[in-house]
Structure formats: structure tokens, C-alpha cells
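Hi team,

Filling in the usual template for the complex we talked about on Friday. All components are listed, including any nucleic acid strands or ligand strings, so the model treats them as one assembly.

SUBMITTER: L.P.
PURPOSE: interface mapping
COMPONENTS: two
RESIDUES: 640
SEQUENCES:
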Amino acid sequence: MLRFLIRRVLTGLLVIWLISIVVFAIFFIAPPNVAYLLLGKFQASDQQLVAQVTHQLGLDQPIPVQYWNFLVRLVHGNLGYSYYNGEPVTTLIGRALPVTASLAVGAAIIWVISGVLIGVMSATHPRSIRDRLATLFALTGLSFPTFVLGLILLYFLFYKLHIAGLDWFPGGGYVPLTQDPWQWFLHLILPWITLAVASMAVYVRLARGQMLEVLGDDYIRTARSKGLSESRVTFRHALRAALVPIVTQFGIDVATLLGGAIVTEQVFGLNGLGRLSVTSVVNQDEPVIIAIVLLAAVFVVCANIVVDILYAALDPRVRLS
Amino acid sequence: MSVSELSDQPAAPPADDGSTGGVVGRSPWQLAWARLRRDRVALVCAAFILFLVLVAVLADPLSHWIGWSPIEQDRNTGTDANGLPVGPGSIHWLGTDQLGRDILVRLIYGTRVSLLVGVSAAVAAVLIGVIVGLCAGFLGPVVDSILARLMDVVLAFPFLLFAIALVTVIGPSEPLEIAVIAFFSWAAVGRIVRGQTLAIREREYVEAARSLGAGNLRIMVIDVLPNLIAPVLVYVTLLIPVSIVFEATLSFLGVGIIPPTPSWGNMLDDAQQGAMYQVAWWFLAFPAAALVLTTLAFNLLGDSIRDALDPRTERLFAK
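RESULT (copied from the run log):
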């Protein structure tokens, strides 16, 4: 177990390191003229000033040296300063992280729980009306791009209700959890649904297929013949085995979560990491982009390690070595 | 119901040469084709996709016949007295956008973009995925571990963010968009192909080929690849809708197709700007419907093809 963990953490670090190189390299394919961005058009005509700023930022050094300096700063927990407004990158990320975390965690809880439950329900009643409805939902959900769903939800549940005099759902924005939990919940419910539906569809499909397969196994018949209640057979015996591929899928989905968050935050005007990354890209604010990409990569790698451990916990046949 | 549908096609062994009384032998492909042809959902979807292809090909004559060009701003009848878009009517059949451009014509040209980007990105991704997966699965542990790590790295990329960063640095264009989508889609295919190759290479016929002196390349192309065609066909159909949505997402975020060239994604972005869709529902409804129906059609068709090639798999959309 320990050996497994060490090995996974090491390969994880390798992956993150590779990604950091790629990110760094991308911005040197076509280096944006940072000094011009910082100084503005007027001051940028002063060659001496431009050279001075470039020197201060260390941008006149060779790229490998710049990369090395970046790594050294990174180890010291310093992610640099935004080119755009001079704030420390850690402050910017610290401000945006709670928004994205609220959005992502809430959506993940919704999609995993309801996706698996709907899938189990359709597998235990195959070919019933409920099963048909569930598959229909899975298929349409799968075909709805996140931003289309978000816009449609906003149109009907915010705008149409608002016109009708019912302000049940706010049209966007974010309220911190610590400030007002109820408003936090209200502001996030539409974004949660938006982000959850597409992934939920995948889980319905997966859970249904897995459950149908597992429910035909011998040990389920044994469990039934022992006189166990149907719900106990379904949830304690069958679901546990069916969860293994679902957990694997979750590991894959973590990487797509940030992508979904970018779109959802854009539609609902949430100032999270997704929006921060889009504005930084538009402003060519490299330190911020590099930090966010690295953070996301760390997140994905950690999630995959957790998934591997969960895998072993769910299926005793899997040995971590 | 899929069971009754399949049962009238008794599990005729594909290799049955049918020498007994009037039974005609059919190859697995013929059987699959026969199943697909009887699948009404698949036929409807295929017809819809064919319609989309026709629309995309005939975009120029169609827009000429309708009477507007995709970037033409109709200053007289395209906007109302307040400068707001006008709804569906006799002049603009599906209404206009915030600049008084005809939504129908823009949708038609958007179809062209979506299909072109979606199909070429999916085909490219599957090609790369199959080649890499085949090599990883067949060429032994050293190549395998390198390629598997590579796929891990690509899959661990926060790809949308990366795509945005890349496009902004290089500058948006259609070929770049296709390349970006293909680059972030091949790894998933590669992983699955690798798994199947690992299983196939242990089969007796591979061993037989090897004992006859066949080289790696020959075995990979002649013995292993044909067994991958069926799943690959399914991936292509299922990757196309994913790529179309990817394209629309990039365009929606402003890093895909450059306006004023219309794409479904940047039309939806226009609709979202200033919450324009709230006063002009057609602005949201038609591009959204086009996008959703297209993805739905490809998803359903992909499912049917999978079902026709391997009737044992669980059908997503049992009739």
C-alpha cells in the first residue's frame, strides 16, 4: 500500500512536471509583449522603459533560466504577480477558488448521487416506463452542451419567472457560504444543475449497464435465497460491485470538471477559476494562467490517486502494488 | 423492444457458409447492415445527418435563394424601431440577430462549420488514437509504458483551459481548432484501442501468423487492425458529436470561429451578450436546437451502429 502510494505520487509529480514544461513552452511559441501590455501604448514608445521592465520581470533571460527561476519561486510558494493588475497570483486564486470549489463539489455530488440512483432504479425495473424515461433523460442530457443548458435554464427559470413576478432563482453572481448559506445555495442551484446534467447522463448509462450485469450474477441469487430484502441485495451487494467502473469514470471526469466550470461560470457570471482563466488568457496574463493550469493538473493527479485507493477499497480483488 | 427486434435475427453464426437448404451465408458486416437497416431510430438519424450534409454543401445556393448573405446586416427590416432583433416572419424566416443578420442563413453556414470541424477532428483523433493504441498494445512493455504515460499526461490536461490558452497565443483559425480538438480527444481512443490490442495479441491466430514468420507491422495491420474496425467505427460516430460540442464551446468562449463567420457556438455567444436572448428567444432557440438535434442524431446513430455490430451490448435507447 505504501509502496503503491509512493509510486503513484512520484508518477503524479512527473506528470505535473511535464505539464508545467508544456505550459511554459506554449507561451514562448509566440511570446506576448509583456512590457507593452504593462506600460500601455504611450509609455511603450520609450525603449529604455521597455527594456527596464523586461529586465525587472526577468524576461530578458534565456527561457531555461526563466523556467528554473519559476520552479524555485514555486517551491517557495510564490506563484508570481499578475501582469495585469499586479496582485499576487496566490491572492487572485485564493479569491476565485471557493467559488469554483462550491460549484464543482456541489455539481459532483448531484451528478454522482442522482446519476447512480437513476441508473440503479432503471436496472432494477428494466424496460419499465421509469427505465425508458431514465434512458431518454440520459440521452438528451448527453446531447445538451453545458452552455446551451445553462442559457435555457436562465431563460425559463430566471427570466420567465422574473417576468411572471416570481424571483425564485437569481440570474447570476455568487454569495459566499460564510456570508449567507441560503443565498449561497440559491445562487448556485442553477449552475449546479447546468454542470451536473451532462455528466449525470453518463453515470445513469454506466450504472444501469453495470447493475444489469451484476444483478445476473450467482452471488446475487445466493443473497436473495438467503432471504435478504431486495433493497439490501440491490444496495449492499450489487451496487458495491457495480461501483468499480463508476469510480474509474469519476477519475476521468475530474479533468473535464474544470472545463465544464469554465463554461458554467461564464454563463452565470460566477467569478471563479474558470472565469479568471478566461480573462487571464484574454489579457495574456501568463503567471495567472500557468498557476491555474498547474493547480488543475495537481487536482487531477490527486483525484486519480484517490480513485485508485477507492478502487481497492471497493473491490478486494484489486491489490495495490 | 430490442429483444424482440433481435430475436427475429437468430444468432446465425457469422461464419456459417449456409450449405443447407436455401440458407444464404452472410458476413458479419452484412448482418450488421441488415440489423441497422431495420432500426427505425438509426434510419431517422441517418436521414437527418444526410439532410445536414446537404444543407452544408448547398449553403451558397440556399442562402442565395433565401435572399440574404450570412454577414449581411439588413438595416431596413432586420431590426425594429428600438434597434432590437425582429422575430420570425415572412422577411426573415427565423428572425434576425442583434445586427439584423438573418438567423436561418447563419444557421445554414454554421452547419458547414460544425460538420467540417466535428467530422475532421473526430477522424483525426481516431486515427491518432488507433495508431498510438496499437503501438502501445503491441510493441512490448517499454513502448507501452512510454505511450501509456503520454496518454495519461494528455488526459490529465485541463483541456478546455489549455485549448483556450493555445488558441489565444497562436490566434484562432479553423485548422487550429480542428487540431486542438483532435489533440485532446485521441488519448481516450488510444487507451481503449490499447486494451483491445493487448487482448488480441494473445490470440492463437496472432501466434500462428508469427510462427509463419510475419513481422510486427504485418501482424498489426493484417491480423489486429481488422478486429478493431468495428469499435473504431463506433468511436468515430460517438466522437463527432463530442467534437461538434467542443467546437461550439470554443466558439462560444470566443476562441473558435472568428466572427463575423457564423458558427452555432458564436451565434449562441452573440445571443448571450447583453442577455439578448431574453428579449429575442429565437436568437437562442434555433442555434441551440440545431446543436442539440445534431448531437442527439449522432449519439443515437452511434448507439445503433454499436448495437448492430455487437447485438449483445446493452442498448441505450431500447425501443
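MY TAKE: Chain B has twelve helices and no strands. The mean pLDDT of chain B is 82.

Thanks, L.
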